[in-house]
Amino acid sequence: MSAQVLRVGGMTPCSTVDFPDALAAVIYCQGCPWRCHYCHNPELLPARGENQLDWADLLAWLRRRQGLLDAVVFSGGEPTMQPGIVGAVKAVRNLGFKVGLHTAGSYPQRLQEVLAWVDWVAMDIKGEWADYPEVTGVANSAEKARESVEAVKASGVAYELRVLEGVG
Ligand code: SF4
């Protein structure tokens, strides 16, 4: 069980810009397998960070926000890197919050697993597919991202593809 606990590197208690038309808490998941040269959250890239928040404490805090917040957004880092994202998404959904997911699409299979519990997805598109290896530093990153885009489109979940400018 403990191996499935979500590792969290930070959070924003209340945001109006991270989930469409909703007040949302944003949870920054620890870890990302890619190394985009422009990444603005380098402290979240290692699988284990120096300043982790306790997931159980976060859930308790969210219980006290029922009725005050509309949604919880899992961001990163890359939320789908951790097996614990599946249980975390379900737990948040069971508290009555809408669930948002920010992802780069690096783990399409785990993304598929959580899509059934998610209300909205924002996926970063890092330029042309051919540029992915150079942008991310990972050889098969374009294949992963393409598979993830197809999974999101097929899921019926509301989504936004965010094409990042100035990359490549
Ligand atoms: S995928 Fe996102 S979190 Fe990961 S290195 Fe790239 S910009 Fe940073």
What does this structure look like?
The chain has five helices and six strands, in the order ββαβαβαβααβ. The relative contact order is 0.17. Helix 2 (84-94) links the parallel strand 3 (71-75) and strand 4. The chain has one domain: Alpha-Beta Barrel (TIM Barrel). The protein is of the alpha/beta class. The protein starts with 7 loop residues before the first strand and ends in a 5-residue tail after the last strand. The structure holds iron/sulfur cluster. InterPro entries: Aldolase_TIM, NrdG2, Organic_radical-activating, rSAM, rSAM_sf. Keywords: 4Fe-4S, Iron, Iron-sulfur, Metal-binding, S-adenosyl-L-methionine. Its cofactor is [4Fe-4S] cluster.
CATH structural architecture? Alpha-Beta Barrel
Distance between the termini: 40 Å
- Helix fraction bin: 25-40%
Q: Largest sheet, if any? A: 6 strands, mixed
Q: How does the helix and strand content classify structurally?
A: alpha/beta
Q: Which regions contain 5 or more consecutive residues with pLDDT less than 50?
A: none
Number of helices: 5
**Quaternary organisation:** single chain
The CATH class designation is Alpha Beta
Keywords: 4Fe-4S, Iron, Iron-sulfur, Metal-binding, S-adenosyl-L-methionine
Cofactor: [4Fe-4S] cluster
Pfam families: Radical_SAM
InterPro entries: Aldolase_TIM, NrdG2, Organic_radical-activating, rSAM, rSAM_sf
